[in-house]
Structures
1.
Amino acid sequence: MFLLGKTQTLIVDHFADAGAYLKESTGRDTVLLPARQVPEGTQAGDLLTVFLYKDSEDRPIATTACPALELGQMALLKVKALSSIGAFLDWGLSKDLFLPFKETAGELKTGQEVLVTLYLDKSERLAASMRIDKLLQSDPPYEKDDKVSGRVYAVNPEIGAFVAVDDKYFGLIPKQELYETLKIGDTVEARVIRKRPDGKLNLSPRRKAYAQLDPDGKTILEHLEAAGGILGVGDKSDAALIKTELSMSKNAFKRAAGHLLKAGKIRVFEDHIEEVK
């Protein structure tokens, strides 16, 4: 039987004005390869490697074009258009790939790149889904403190940001490690803070505390300069305020502020800090 969403090799059965009709070696059913895609010199009995999908009238059709992904695979695709029922993605074929809203994971925008998989819906039509968790592997070649890169494919404020490390492995930035707003499609550089027994990775976009002192100190000085030398966060400030103002935890702030204090670059008070000029 024909396999929608898969590349396969079929036999040229006969020709018509519309193109070449192909069949399997043991079957009788045929599928059309449009005339514009039939290789020059093709004859009946020849073998052609094609990809099968459905046309705009929901009929199986063959193409010699190579789509960005096949059934069960993952690929990064660009959003070409949005509609009231979903999005349409560019996957390398003349007919765009439909991504139903029920298979999305967050707000989408035209031009955005999203990591998706290809599946057959209940009507036996090919569609895209951003629900890729089950396809992500859990045997990465990474260990604690290794640096990795990946792409955010889902965000849950109660859990954290889900990251496809190398677009292949499962990663999670827990919410307590999120000190900046991440959105679907963002690429992140992170450090492995834990490799779970099941092989999945917990990540942090921040370096170890001692290595983070310089960038955190720079962030504090930049905010001080922008605020005219006085910033409304101090030693006794609430953690939520510090996170809002500086995108870092209270502990990170206190470490970096202490480092700057010892260096004579700032003065620290309970409710604010001042730049030393």
2.
Amino acid sequence: MNTRSATAGGDVQSAQPDVIVVPRSDATVSARLDRLPPTRYFRGLVARIAIGGWFEFYEMFMAAYIALGLIRSGLYRATTAGLFDVDGFASFLGAFFAGMFVGTVCMGGLTDRFGRRAVFTFAMLAYSLATFVAAFQHEPVAMDAWRFVAGVGIGIQLITVDTYVSELTPHRSRGRYMAFSILVILTSVPVVAVLSFLLVPQRLFGLEGWRWVMIVGSAGAVLIGFIRRGLPESPRWLESRGRADEAGRIVDLIEARVVAETGRPLPPPTAEASRVADERPGAWSEIWRRPYLGRTIMLSCFNFFQTFGVYGFGSWVPVLLYTKGVTLTHSLLYTMVIAFATPLGAIGAILCAERLQRKWQLVGCAVVVAIGGLLFGMARAPAPILLCGSAVTIANNWLIGIFHSYQAELYPTRIRARAVGFVFSWSRLSSIFVGFWVAALLKHSGVPAVFALISSAMLVIVIMVGLLGPKTNGVRLEELSR
């Protein structure tokens, strides 16, 4: 049996011999996508996009696990002599997050202009190659420069992945698919933890172990051809750009795949969902007008302060333990054990994504991070260190699994990437400074002071999301954008 061969958006549209073609509807592509049931086909698309995100999270969390290797090699110091001291480990973190800030705030428009698929590919190549070059640097300034370049690519990729997944999936399962993508992505954390535990203390083929951890992280450049193959452009983006025929051909194939998998005819699009697609050109200034103003303020505050918990804890766990008197080997061991709790947060997000309002899940996760962090700061014995560290890790990653979906669904397709880029850039901005603040607090006040800072930041999230965050579960993207 032959199918129609669509040409837009990539080679996913090539002929599929076992796929049943369904007649095209006059409804918008959004209405056609939103009526589709959850299927293995959608999980496959989301997983393929998530593989690209896997390497970006590997890059982000890698710093925590190679930190002691960088410090022991003499390339960096654990503390800093002052703000922006390039010899301190905080500059390694700061340069990376500065690059992410540039990528999110200055280049988010690339995704809205050139499409989700093309920018997804470009960004993955950029940060993978930059990481490979960084692995062979021997001076802090050169290392920081290449980490900055990698950060730019990852900043662009973060926006693109969130936007891509939210636009390809039906609205009733959007949160669950986003959480599933985060689950796939977060498996990178225990992988980098195990690799660091095995490699950082070693020297292989003349290279220090931490350099091998970075080289593994650059493998995304090799896999991009596989990931890109079979990945369609976002039909919603194509339609918003006035390319309705191309968008329709992609949805034709998606519908055909769903019908072939389920063996059931598709329900008709609802009359409300079938309204004419909005093809107005988007403007960044829209985020400062209703109904988006309150969302922009809330998400900007949320992103600025969430990094205190996610990266203030995640990027410093081995150093925090080492500062508390735990040996290098045990610090890496405890960190590796805690890292294995990472996917549990994403699993929780998958199970509850559509059952509980996403805004209240964010509030609950922030409360757990605040309390668990304070207890971790006071813990000395292995059991409470592992228990509290795991609780904070699970809550942080549950929060990640929910907020990536939450912020992407609060803006219309025409400005989604730019808007998400702007609000997300506040997290990159705060990340530049969090490392220096943590280093200063460690030097002058100790580990408990670090977690007092983290808990205060979590309180801000509880207030802002609780008061200003809209409810989004089960609501179509187009309805949320009205």
3.
Amino acid sequence: MTVRVRFAPSPTGKLHVGNVRTALANVLFARKEKGEFILRFEDTDIERQVNDAEQNMMAALDWLGMTPDESITHGGEYGPYRTRERAANGDYTKALDTLFDMGLVYECFVSKEELDMIRRMRTSRGLPPGYDNRHRDLTDAERDAFRAEGREPVIRFKLIDGEILFEDLVRGTVRYEAQHLGGDPVIVRSNGIPTFAFAAAVDDINQKVTHIIRGEDHVTNTAIQVRIFEALNDGKCPKFAHLPMMLDHDGGKLSKRLDSLSITQLQENGYMPEAIVSYLAAIGTSTDPQIGTIDELAERFDFSKIGRAPVRFDLDQVDRLNAQLIHKMEWPEVKDQVLDMISADMDEATLESFWQTVRPNLQRLEEVSEQFKLCFADIAPANLNDEDAAYIAQAEQTLPQGPYNGDTWSQWVGELKEKTGRKGKALFMPLRLALTGVEHGPELADLLPLIGEDRARNRLHKAAGK
């Protein structure tokens, strides 16, 4: 049996790290099992659909190294890969006809107002809110009377009382009592659009999906879908794995509209795809994040290592991994990205020297623009006390003539130490503030040749208050 998994987002926004964690689990499992990863779009929420969302999501997956085997652009034997296109092909009508023939679905004419009243009544009696299945056994005459009133029915699936049981690769054995799931679920809306639970189950059957890997917020949906699978697929269900919820740093629910954690924004902020996927592959498991390619991460992927407790996304951990990656990158690897962030009219050797100098201080590539300004642009004069300003004036007088090399800094500082008696922080910090305007950064021995004599002398002059 070929393992087939799917990621089926709704094109209503950008992919955020929560979506990608789910997609990544599917990709890693498929790669490990030499299986196939399907991307399809559940595009039934027309009112919330966002232009270019599909293209944005596909571009994000490609950038992360998670390109699907089958999709709206890659094709495949089991297309199409949009819900509305599959509806136009008659997939859901055919499945619905089968369920009608089996006596497992019915038309329900309960209005929204009546449904609200039913829920309030159930709640007042200490029962869970839900639908009480009152239209399960309408007669033809009753249905005709409702239609005469202008009511448009929904289609509900008969959730027959009894235990629903399935094995979960993360949660173990999961049991539900059907009568506690809120009544017969709607599977086709009054406008004829199938609901997620129904359409996804039909698609999974028709696309030969073997494993459904998604967030634990879908566990109740799974209980309902198990019954739909059993009815439409000769009693057989895919295997399931429900990942624990991933929260934001403050413990809130992630949202597609949380742009700061969208893949597009992380990419613009200079994060590397390997850092993001390496962190997401480890979050919620018993292992520490280790940088790896998709194939390397797939070899280490194991459902048994995934815990059940909710996890929080920690951007500081991604920063740490991102820094590890950047610190190993050579100029040819990052040249194009860096040049997109800076406006540089200088020779290649100087740019490469700049990269080698600032690289150890970067966590994200976007920081390279600030480092470039630090080396080559005008900076605000340092705010020094009178004593340090006098010291910087003396430093300006002893500044060597260029051109500078790797030894210039130590020679200059050695002379200043001898003349002023300063040492340690008192010797170095005023120089760093005068030359760069910040307290931390690359080694000044490496920076000074990039800053050059004219710029260094000008910055010292301004810092001395002249």
4.
Amino acid sequence: MNELISNYSGTYPEAGIDEAGRGCLAGPVVAAAVILPQDFTHPHLNDSKQLSAARRSEMRALILEHALAWQVGIVSPGRIDEINILNATFEAMHIAIAGLGISPVYLCIDGNRFRPYPGIPHSSLVKGDSKYLHIAAASILAKTTRDAMMLELHQSFPHYGWDQNKGYPTAAHRAALREHGSSPWHRLSFRLQEAPTLFDT
């Protein structure tokens, strides 16, 4: 039985918001916003980090089929370098919220920090993706969207192993940076082991 709750504020429609890729060395940061039907539930819908890749793919299809509204926001590595990762995360979340086809009356944000979205009250909920269905759904959409982007980018930059690490700072990724330098998709404001940039950005 799924123990996640469908609504936090008691108002409706309420949107769940989460991000993926904040701690990566490469690739964009991606956020998603999701409004689920009031009575929606599913035994396998959970925080994306608790699910296998196959289960996330299954849940993504389910969310896209049943969500009343959903949207993703994507902020590039260049923009991350320009405004820093925290502000870029907030920007991605705002893009996702603005793109919803239904205007929510309340926002539930995974985590402990958020830049208020104009005109809509919110709560920041630590580990919200393991407590609320709409935040769990947002976590799945954000992660699956970003993972697909990194798999596509891997075709052009296979030596970084993005098909495996998705841009996160694994030992293999760090080693590849030392050997090959950074790519146009790396966040140059992050600590990349002082790897030289070999590509024009």
